[in-house]
Each structure stands twice: as C-alpha cells, then as structure tokens.
TrEMBL record:
<dbReference type="InterPro" id="IPR005467">
    <property type="entry name" value="His_kinase_dom"/>
</dbReference>
<keyword id="KW-0808">Transferase</keyword>
<dbReference type="InterPro" id="IPR003660">
    <property type="entry name" value="HAMP_dom"/>
</dbReference>
<dbReference type="InterPro" id="IPR003594">
    <property type="entry name" value="HATPase_dom"/>
</dbReference>
<dbReference type="Pfam" id="PF00512">
    <property type="entry name" value="HisKA"/>
</dbReference>
<keyword id="KW-0418">Kinase</keyword>
<protein>
    <recommendedName>
        <fullName>histidine kinase</fullName>
        <ecNumber>2.7.13.3</ecNumber>
    </recommendedName>
</protein>
<keyword id="KW-1133">Transmembrane helix</keyword>
<dbReference type="InterPro" id="IPR036890">
    <property type="entry name" value="HATPase_C_sf"/>
</dbReference>
<keyword id="KW-0597">Phosphoprotein</keyword>
<dbReference type="InterPro" id="IPR036097">
    <property type="entry name" value="HisK_dim/P_sf"/>
</dbReference>
<dbReference type="GO" id="GO:0005886">
    <property type="term" value="C:plasma membrane"/>
</dbReference>
<dbReference type="InterPro" id="IPR003661">
    <property type="entry name" value="HisK_dim/P_dom"/>
</dbReference>
<keyword id="KW-0547">Nucleotide-binding</keyword>
<keyword id="KW-0812">Transmembrane</keyword>
<feature type="transmembrane region" description="Helical">
    <location>
        <begin position="157"/>
        <end position="180"/>
    </location>
</feature>
<dbReference type="Pfam" id="PF00672">
    <property type="entry name" value="HAMP"/>
</dbReference>
Length: 466
C-alpha cells in the first residue's frame, strides 16, 4: 500500500489512502477492544454462574450416604428449572454416572476440576467437576454443566458485525476522505492553475483569499505576496533593459555617424578624421563606463559584489577624493568638516567610488563658484555618518522618492555640464551602502540645494581599531 501511495502523484490520493488506513487501524483496535471486553465479560459471568451454583449446592447438602442420595434431588431440579441452562451429573468414585439431568443424556462431558468449555453437536457448554472427598461416608463427584451456546453464538455474530462495520467504515472513510481532502486542498489546485497560467507578460493575476485563517489561507497569501515581488522585479528588469538600451543607443548612434563621416570624408580631410576619432574615443569611454556600472549593479543584485577589505582612515580617504576634484573642478569651493576621526574596515576602492559619485553629482548641479560641504561625524559608538551638501537648484518633492532608481534623472535640464550622467551613479551608491548594511537618505527641496546622508555601522574590526 505504501508503494502505491508513493507512486501516486496527487497529494489528495496520498492523504486519502493514508487517512483511510489510519481509520481502518483505529476501527480495528476499537472493534478488537469491544470484542475482548465483551468476551471477558461473558466468560466471567459464565464462571461466576457456575461457581455460585456450586456454592449453593454445597451449602444445601443434606445427606452423607450413597452418592445418589448425597444431594437433595429436588434442589438440583429446582436450580435447573430456575436457571434453565444449568445442569448436573453425579458420578461415583469410579467415575460412573449415578444420576444426571435429562439434557445431558448421551453427552460426552470432559472430567475437569477447572471450568472447561466443550462442544456437543451444535451445543457449546462449560463444565466444572467437584470431588466429594471431604465427606467420610461418601466418595464421588458432582459435575455442574452450563449451556453457553447463546453467549458464544452472540460473540461469533459480534465478530461478523464488527468486521462488516469496519469494512463499511473504511469504504466510507475513503470516499468522504477523498472529497473532504479535495475540498480542503482546492486552494492548492487554484495556486497550481494560477501558476501554470501566469507568464512574464501576465503577472497581475492573484488568488482570491477567503475562508478561515488556516495554513492554506496563509499559503495563498504568501503566493500572492510572491507574485507581487515577482511583478515588481519583472517591471524593474524590463525598465532596466529598456533604459539601458536607450542609454546605449545614443553613443552607438554617435559612433555610427562618425564612422559614416570617416568613410565619406575622413580619407581626404585630416580635420574631419581627427574630429571623428576624438568623438569615437569619447563615446567609447562613455560606453565602457556605462557597461562597468551596469556590471557592478548586476553583481550587486546577485549578491556577488566582490570586496577587498582592510582597515583605512575614512577622513584621509575623503581628503584624497577632495584633492582629486579640486584639480579638475576649480570653479567649485569644496569644504571638509571633520567632527570625528573615523577608522573603518571595508573596501577602500568601493568607498572611493561612492564619494566620487556624490561629489560628481554635487558638482554637476552646483552653481558657478558654488559651495559643497562634506561632513563626517560619529553618531554613537556603533555608527557614524558622512554627508555631501551642495547649494544647487535642489530636487522637487515629486522626484525625491526616485533619485536612487536606475537611469532616473530628476531634471535633465538643470545641469550646467554638457556631459550628462547615465543616471546610474546614485543607484550604484545605494548598492554599495546596502552591501555594508548602511542607510542612505537625501534631503532637498527645489531652489534650496541637496544633502545626501550616508549612515554606516562600525563593525567589530572598526571598534577594535578605534
């Protein structure tokens, strides 16, 4: 049976057959208990009846002579008439019959000092033999016989009834168990059908959740929640691919245009050739940077962001990055406010990239001769923060929730730089901060500048060094 259950593919059949088997075992045990209880009860009554009759006869003994007259014959007849199924046989010391009830005529009765059951034709009886050796003038035996045919037939009939009841109960349990299980597992069937019908282009379907708050309802809610996450993930992926394609289309179109220009005029005109080569080089660098950023984000999404960690001074790292930007951007005033000295254990190159993203973004949107402030400070013994604040045009409240989305640019017209970004910088920054279990936030309003705040935890290595 277990091999059959294992081979069945439907869980409803597995549960039904297992349930039916357990129900049959329960019925078997209950029926067995009922049978043994009644059987013992009836056997005890039979023994008690025989023993009580023997005590009554012995207490009414009236003579001590010949075994035939040893007992009161009227008493024995009266007991047989009143009990209807109690009979007597008197034997002499040699075991020969001296007197007996007519019911026992021609009946072969075993000679046993204990109560013993025997058959005589269709009758079933129980007998007990009493030796009369305690009397001085008489030696002999008294056999008390009880007809137990009715009781034994009742037990035989009871076995048949219990067996039939068990079989019928098992069949009913199979049918009821199947339909009950099928109804109870209907949410799982709905989940299966919904999952089969769902495709990447149709993730909006959901299960209808109703009924009691049981495990199946929780499963349906969990399935719907999973579909929500999948739908959001597919939408992000679709948007990501669409945006990436859009971002790559422009440099590819520029390169193709200059290649066509080279093909037509570059062979004859040196200035055209040089212009085309410079433009192609520039667009190639932009494409290379874009692909590296996309690869970094993809690795971060797959939790495969490689880190080469070491202890470094965060203040010195900020000063190093500021020095780099001061050489390239002399029109902007960079100020560093050091509230605390921070030694941090992490990947220095990743945090260089993080700081460059914030400074590059701040410089793009800062006015001529504007001011950018970088600040670092401990929050408590477990955390510190650094912030980058510019005095640019700021970000509107409608755009703030989306500034860390990939390829998102709040206002493409407000930058004073000709070379606009790809819209991946802040998404990469968030990926780096999240990878270190930190928090990143932005404070801004239109016309009032922007402030990016990064909170990072100091791990055990940080605290030990500090």
């Amino acid at each position: 049976m277990f091999d059959f259950v294992n081979k069945k593919s439907k869980i409803s059949w597995k549960i039904t057959i297992l349930y039916a088997f357990m129900f049959m075992m329960l019925i078997f045990l209950v029926n067995l208990s009922i049978y043994f209880f009644l059987s013992n009860f009836i056997d005890d009554n039979i023994k008690k009846s025989i023993n009580n009759t023997i005590e009554l006869v012995l207490s009414q003994t009236s003579g001590i002579g010949d075994p035939v007259n040893f007992f009161d014959t009227e008493l024995l007849q009266q007991i047989s008439r009143s009990e209807e199924n109690i009979f007597f046989r008197v034997l002499n010391k040699d075991g020969k019959i001296q007197a007996q009830s007519k019911y026992l005529k021609d009946m072969d009765i075993p000679f046993s000092a204990e109560i013993e059951e025997f058959r005589s034709g269709t009758k079933r009886l129980a007998v007990k033999t009493i030796p009369m050796n305690n009397f001085v003038f008489s030696k002999g035996y008294l056999q008390v016989v009880r007809d137990i045919t009715f009781e034994k037939n009742f037990l035989d009939f009871l076995i048949i009834v219990l067996t039939m009841a068990g079989g019928i109960g098992a069949l009913i349990s199979v049918f009821l168990g199947y339909f009950t299980t099928k109804k109870m597992l209907s949410p799982i069937n709905k989940i299966t059908e919904t999952a089969r019908e769902i495709s990447s282009s149709d993730l909006g379907r959901r299960l209808e959740v109703s009924g009691p708050d049981d495990e199946l309802k929780k499963l349906a809610l969990t399935f719907n929640s999973m579909l929500d996450r999948l739908e959001k993930s597919f939408k992000r992926q679709k948007q990501f691919v669409s945006d990436a394609s859009h971002e790559l289309r422009t440099p590819i179109s520029v390169i193709k245009g200059y290649v066509d220009l080279l093909d037509r005029w570059g062979k004859e005109k040196k200035d055209v050739r040089d212009e085309a080569i410079d433009a192609i080089k520039k667009e190639t660098v932009n494409m290379k940077q874009l692909m590296e950023n996309l690869l970094l984000l993809a690795r971060g999404d797959d939790s495969e962001l490689k880190r080469e960690e070491e202890m470094f001074n965060f203040n010195n790292l900020i000063n190093e990055i500021i020095s780099e930007f001061e050489i390239m951007e002399k029109e902007v005033n960079l100020e560093f406010v050091e509230k605390d000295e921070i030694n941090f254990y992490g990947d220095q190159n990743l945090f260089k990239q993080l700081l460059r993203i914030f400074l590059d973004n701040a410089i793009k949107f800062t006015s001529h001769k504007g001011r950018i402030e970088i600040k670092i400070e401990k929050i408590d013994s477990d955390n510190f923060y650094f912030s980058v604040t510019d005095d640019g045009p700021g970000i509107s409240s409608e755009d703030l929730p989306f500034v860390f989305d990939r390829f998102y640019q709040a206002d493409k017209s407000r930058t004073r730089k000709a070379n606009k970004g790809s819209g991946l910088g802040l998404a990469i920054a968030k990926q780096i901060v999240d990878n270190y279990q930190g928090d990143i936030d932005v404070e801004s309003e239109a016309g009032a500048g922007t402030k990016f705040i990064v909170v990072l935890p100091l791990n055990k290595n940080n605290k030990k060094e500090a």
